[in-house]
Every structure is written in C-alpha cells, then in structure tokens.
C-alpha cells in the first residue's frame, strides 16, 4: 500500500494543491494495508477520528433505538427477514434464473460476472458502446468492492459519485470508512476544504455550515445529472418473481440517476435477491430503521425492465459473484450473505467506534466485514480477531446474522490452518490443558494475581513480559483482582456456615455500611 499522504493547511487547500490525509485507493478494495492490529494502533492515535466516530455512531444508535422501540412486532420482523434470506440461500440458483427470465421479458439485458475484472469489463464495454466518457453513479457497495471507478478511469471514463458522502470521499482521493456513512471520518471543516480544493465550481467563500455545503454539492451534481447519458447503480433488492430492482436512499440523487440517463447499468451481488414482491414489506421496515434510524427511506425507487417513453430506454443488470458462491458453499459462514448492508453492527461495535473503517483494510468494515471479507477472498485474515465477541452486533442485526459464532468459527480455522500467528497453536493447547481440569484452572487463576504488579496507575496492563507480549501488542489487560472468584466463593461458603452455626436467623445478618466492603466487593 502507498504511504498515507500528509495533510496540508487550509490555505493550501484553497489553492487546489492538496493531498488530504486519508486512505489512498488500493489496488484491491477487499485487501489493503497493514494487519488489523497495526492499522488499529495507527487509527487509535487519531483523536479527531475518534471524536467524529464517537459522535456519529452515538447519534445513529439513539435514532435507531427510538424508531425500533415503536414497532411492537420488531422481533417477528427480524425472524421473517432471517427466514426469507435463508430461503434465498437454499434456492439461489433457481431464483437467479427466475430473475433473469423476468428482467429479460421486460426489456432488460442480464449479464453474469464471475469476478471483479469481468464485471468491470462488461460495464466499460457498455459505456463505450454508447459513446460516453462520463457516468453518474448511485452509492453502491458492490461497485466499491470491484473497484469500478478506477477501472473505468483506466478506460478514459470518469465516474461521478452522486451520494454526498461518496462524493466527499471521491474528491478527497480517499476510501469510504463506513457502509452507510462513507465519510464518517470527516468533519465539516475538512469537507469544506475538500470542496474548495477539488470541486472546481464550489463558491470561493464557502463556509462549513451544513446547508451551504449541501447546496454547493447540489449545484455541482445537478449539472452532472442533466448531461449524463449513462448511470451506474447498485441494488438493495432484486425481486425474482417480477424482475423488479429497488434502491433506497435519502438524498434523491439515486432517483435522478435512475430516471434521467438514457442507459442504466445495475451491478448487483447475487445474494441481494428476495423471492416475491410482497417480501419487500418486511425489508422496507427493517432496513431504514436499522440503517438511518428512519421509519422509511425518503426515496424508494423501483424499476422493472424498460418502459417506453419513461426513464432509461436501455437497462443492463450485471449479476456479480466475486466469491459469493464460495461463501454459499460454507454451511457455517453462509449466513454472512444474508446481510442487507444496514450498518447497524458497525454503529454498536466498540472496536469499530474506536478505530474506524480504514483499519479493516476492506470496503466492508466492522463486524460484518470481519466475517464477510475473509470469506469473499478465501485468504488467511486477522479480521476475525477484530472483535470483543460482546454480541451487540447480533442483537441489532435486522436479519439475525450470528456474527459472533461465525467469528469464533473463522478463528478456529485460522488456528487449525497455522495462519493465526506464531505460537497460537501452542497457546491454545496450553489453555485447553489448564481449562479442562478444575484444580489446574484454580491454580492458574491464583497465579494470575501476580500480574497486579504490572498494572499502571490507571489499573491497566499495557505490556506483558516474554510470550505474553504477543497478546499485549494489540490489546490491554485490566489489573487482576486481589481475590479470585473461587477464593471469594470459598470464603462466602465458610462465612455462611459460621453464621448458620451461631443460630442467626436467616435474613437478619448484619449488612455492611455502603462503601465499607473490600476492593473486590466494591
């Protein structure tokens, strides 16, 4: 990966000669940068990033909780969404064929792409066949995954992102760091500098007031919408029963791309299918509440093939595999394909909130990225370890993907394959030996109290000696308590026996004054 560029001053930004601090576009959007521990350590040193992330994720979490709390059958909706996605995975080949038949019958053309290179080639050929050198794009994770913008640029075709956050990322020469809010790592002042330096037609006196920033982007994009002959989109859902495609968004840019250009090209991962049109009623309740914390998306666009005289008169659907059939064949991990890209798991993850999306080295960050990226690439990865296994991601997932269980399974595979790092196999065998015998476990827990001397004034152990240093290289440890649970329990039972022998009535034992207990009790 190229070295991260340094930030320059605001005056330099206004002059237009700017390299913004960010993540340069990688050669492979699913694999970039250093290992997660190294990247996470780097990002933890960025205080501005942590402030941006903390504020944004807390706001989204609160909005989501409020609108989810209004739905009395929320858990039933989650069950329905999970069941529908399971049905899709069980019948994917047949459903894909049904979708192709219905899209074709309604005037569309279906293309099948085995990998990123094939998908990019199809899009470039279609654009060149129309004689276009510029396309407008709807926000799309699938096109980010295959590096479509960069592939088109090599063919002399410029792709303009029309989602506001994606536009910010594109103008900065950056990479997205969140599934829903790609520019979550940027604040208003940074966005103003990016616009004045890179947009070209931004007002010279542009401030960092959100309304002014939005108006500048609107004026810039409106000219693109009115002149573009070709648009490229992703798809939130593809309905096998009718051949209908759907995009949900909040700004209206998607609606402009899906209706104004003469030609529309949609790149859709093969897992985005739903069986019937009526199934949309489940997902159009689950998705907006889980993603933006809204009861419904401001813009829900659906199109079915080509309608003479209305909207694009040429429609192409590219069905993208790019590792998905490999994931489908994995019984333990295939539910990662249930993901509807809501990003709820990112917003509750304590790891993501502190390190941001760039640390994951993939366009899919956070908990879902930690299970999806290794499976899509089929390569060894340390991403399954980028989690506390707290389970918060499963609790908020609208389709009940059991991310913690998949993480554990992927970790086991890394250890068994020998890719988990030097010493992991021996460490796990030692742990198994200790934990398989109660007496050995109690002795080991007692020895752990010696670690108290290594803790700093804040009660944290940041460095262990010897082999333990491999653990603290990427995580801290709390200071061990003075007394183990087994020791506390033994003392409790002994005290209970003494009180019983003294004839004290149950429930009349003397209660300690608040704050007078031992350190462990407090």
UniProtKB/TrEMBL annotation:
InterPro entries: 4Fe4S_Fe-S-bd, FTHF_cligase-like_sf, Helical_ferredxn, LUD_dom, LutB/LldF, NagB/RpiA_transferase-like. Keywords: 4Fe-4S, Electron transport, Iron, Iron-sulfur, Metal-binding, Repeat, Transport. Residues 96-319 form the LUD domain. SUPFAM superfamilies: alpha-helical ferredoxin (SSF46548), NagB/RpiA/CoA transferase-like (SSF100950). Residues 336-401 form the 4Fe-4S ferredoxin-type domain. Residues 464-522 are annotated as: Disordered. It comes from Myceligenerans crystallogenes. It holds the Pfam family Fer4_8. This is LutB/LldF family L-lactate oxidation iron-sulfur protein. The keyword Amino-acid biosynthesis does not apply.
């Amino acid at each position: 990966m190229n070295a991260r560029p340094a930030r320059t001053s605001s005056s330099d930004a206004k002059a237009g000669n700017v390299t913004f601090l960010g993540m340069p576009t990688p050669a492979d959007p699913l694999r970039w940068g250093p290992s997660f521990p190294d990247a996470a350590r780097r990002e933890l040193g960025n205080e501005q990033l942590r402030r941006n992330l903390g504020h944004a994720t807390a706001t989204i979490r609160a909005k989501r909780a409020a609108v989810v709390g209004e739905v009395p059958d929320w858990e039933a909706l989650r069950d329905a969404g999970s069941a529908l996605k399971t049905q899709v995975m069980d019948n994917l080949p047949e459903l894909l064929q049904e979708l192709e038949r219905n899209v074709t019958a309604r005037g569309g053309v279906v293309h099948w792409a085995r990998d990123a290179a094939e998908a990019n080639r199809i899009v470039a050929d279609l654009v060149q066949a129309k004689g276009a050198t510029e396309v407008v794009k709807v926000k799309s994770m699938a096109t980010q995954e295959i590096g479509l913008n960069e592939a088109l640029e090599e063919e002399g075709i410029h792709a303009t992102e029309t989602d506001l956050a994606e536009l910010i990322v594109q103008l900065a020469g950056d990479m997205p760091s969140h599934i829903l809010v790609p520019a979550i790592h940027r604040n208003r002042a940074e966005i103003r500098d990016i616009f004045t330096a890179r947009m070209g037609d931004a007002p010279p006196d542009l401030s960092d007031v959100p309304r002014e920033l939005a108006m500048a982007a609107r004026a810039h994009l409106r000219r693109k919408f009115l002149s573009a002959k070709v648009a490229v989109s992703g798809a939130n859902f593809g309905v096998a029963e009718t051949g209908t495609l759907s995009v949900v968004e909040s700004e209206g840019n998607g609606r402009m791309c899906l209706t104004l250009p003469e030609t529309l090209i949609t790149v859709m991962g093969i897992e985005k299918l739903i069986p019937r049109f009526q199934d949309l009623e489940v997902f159009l309740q689950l998705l907006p509440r889980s993603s933006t914390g809204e009861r419904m998306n401001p813009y829900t666009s659906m199109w079915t093939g080509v309608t003479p005289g209305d909207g694009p008169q040429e429609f192409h659907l590219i069905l993208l595999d790019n590792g998905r059939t490999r994931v489908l064949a994995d019984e333990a991990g295939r539910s990662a394909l249930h993901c509807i890209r809501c990003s709820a798991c990112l917003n509750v993850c304590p790891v993501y909130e502190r390190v941001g999306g760039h640390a994951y080295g993939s366009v899919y960050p956070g908990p879902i990225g930690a299970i999806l990226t290794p499976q899509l690439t089929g390569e060894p990865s340390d991403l399954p370890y980028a989690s506390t296994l707290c389970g918060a991601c499963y609790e908020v997932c609208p389709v009940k993907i059991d991310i913690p269980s998949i993480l554990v399974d992927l970790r086991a595979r890394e250890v068994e394959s020998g890719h988990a790092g030097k010493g992991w196999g021996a460490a796990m065998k030692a742990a198994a030996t200790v934990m398989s015998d109660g007496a050995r476990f109690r002795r080991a827990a007692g020895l752990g109290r010696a670690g108290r001397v290594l803790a700093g004034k804040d009660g944290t152990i940041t460095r262990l000696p010897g082999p333990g240093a491999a653990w603290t290289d990427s995580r801290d440890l709390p200071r061990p308590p003075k007394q183990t649970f087994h020791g506390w329990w033994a003392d409790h039972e002994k005290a209970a026996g003494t009180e019983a022998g003294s004839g004290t009535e149950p429930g009349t034992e003397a209660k300690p004054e608040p704050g007078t207990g031992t350190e462990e009790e407090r």
